[in-house]
Amino acid sequence: MGDEVDTSTLWEADGLFRAFIGLLNTQYVEGVPVYHLVIETVMVMLLIKLVFYDSSFKKKPFRDKLTEKEQEDLINSWEPEPLVPVFTKEEEEAAEAQERVVDGMVKTHVSINGEDKLNLTSFNFLGLVGDEEMQDSAVAACHKYGIGSCGPRGFYGTVDVHLQLEENLAKFMGAEQGLIYAYGFSTIASVIPAYCKRGDVIFYDKGVGFATQKGLIASRARLVGFEHNNIADLERCLEEQAEMDKKDPKKAQGCRRFMVVEGLYQNYGDIAPLPQLVDLKFKYKVRLFIEESMSFGVLGKTGRGLTEHYGISVDKIDCIAAAMSNSLASVGGFAVGRTFVVDHQVLSGAGYCYSASLPPLLAVAALQALQLIDSRKDLQSKVVANAKTFRDALAGEFKKAKCTSLEIGGDILSPVVHVRVGGVERLEADSLLDAVVESTLGKGLALTKSIYLIKEEMHVPPPSIRLSVSAGHTTAELTSAAKTIAAAFKAAM
């Protein structure tokens, strides 16, 4: 026999049902909307179901453990995925054949697999890699301080040269205070989330680099991207935010607004229009952050960056951050600004608080590089002149080769030059650029195609060959390289 039903529960349900039927037979239903009757009927039926469910059905016992046989079956059927992709022997041999190994300093010329190549890939803009004065000062610092600090800044990782470098950087940039980070990538990625939080809004240029993107994501603020270097689109976004603030003043009071741009865009070679950005900053009451890894040491008469290039006071910028691995030929990064702004990063900048401090010998090298920039005024003017020479030479050689579909991206002052192929799909462009890089390597040039993490990038730039010019290059080297690159494109197309 099945389970017995509780008769008291049946009597209760029968009573409810009879009462409901009696209610329907009265004048209650007269003038009542139909949807009311439907809802009440469904509710009564659910009530009856719950009453019968609780008393008439026994719950099946819950087992939170598997039997030994079930465990063995699961273990035997499990096939672990490989930690790394499995390559065939032919694929491994092909990869080894394409391996590029640098066996020396990465200067204007670099040794790759034992062969000398003209280097047009690194961001050694001022040609300070291998400078004897920098090397001598770094060796002396190594003897005095050792190799590393082995601790964060707040835990006995601060050395006197760190404080001196921060002071000199602030003075060099005309700011009140500076702060250094041990890793260039983590500088802007730490600066942004140190100030921007959930509930804030950040207006950012869609052309910003990967490190800046990581800082934007880490902030958890609402992100509003505007078209690359498009002031009209930026103002449209700011105006929309202003309209939203008018509709909800209470929410607007707790929402802080930021603008994030780069001085010189690594992915495009364009210069940010700082005067217009500053105008919008004050018009819409927005804080302005600038990432200057590419523009520091390059723009401005003395290499002070974007603010000097446009003649705008640093005090009008809330925070400037940059890596020291480019123009300073060292490691790490720095942030400068007002004292009350920069001080906040001491406890809120993740890369500052939780990373071992910059090795003292690298801080000394950066100090020496700053002195060289101040004493050798020709470094900045030379890199800008070389950038113009190379860009003009490329344009002339492409015209001679009738490579009309090629585009030379970037500002005329930019030492970062992007060559793109117009009118073709991304895969076809990638294949063509790879062929040019491979071809020119055999002719004495070290080039590189711009590499992006497609699945990680917020806005993937178009494919290009990214060329970097240094103050150490000669005019003859640059004009010869332009001819070689044009010939390679012509042959590949």
Description:
The chain is built from 20 helices and 13 strands. By secondary structure, it is α/β, with parallel strands linked by helices. It folds into 3 domains: 1-79, no CATH class; 90-119 and 378-492, Aspartate Aminotransferase, domain 1; 132-375, Aspartate Aminotransferase, domain 2, CATH 3.40.640. The strands form 3 sheets. A 7-stranded mixed β-sheet has the order 3-9-8-7-6-4-5, sandwiched between helices. It has a 3-stranded mixed β-sheet with strand order 1-2-12. A 3-stranded antiparallel β-sheet has the order 10-11-13. Helix 10 packs parallel to helix 12. The chain is globular, with a radius of gyration of 33 Å.
Main pleated-sheet profile: 7 strands, mixed
Number of strands: 13
Named CATH topology of the largest domain: Aspartate Aminotransferase, domain 2
Helical region count?
Answer: 20
Question: CATH architecture of the largest domain, please?
Answer: 3-Layer(aba) Sandwich
- First-last Cα distance: 85 Å
What portion of residues is helical? 40-55%
Number of domain units: 3
Mean pLDDT: 89
Poorly predicted segments: none
Which percent band covers the strand fraction? 5-15%
Keywords for this structure?
single chain, 493 residues, alpha/beta, Aspartate Aminotransferase, domain 1, Aspartate Aminotransferase, domain 2, 3 domains, 7-stranded mixed sheet, 3-stranded mixed sheet, 13 strands
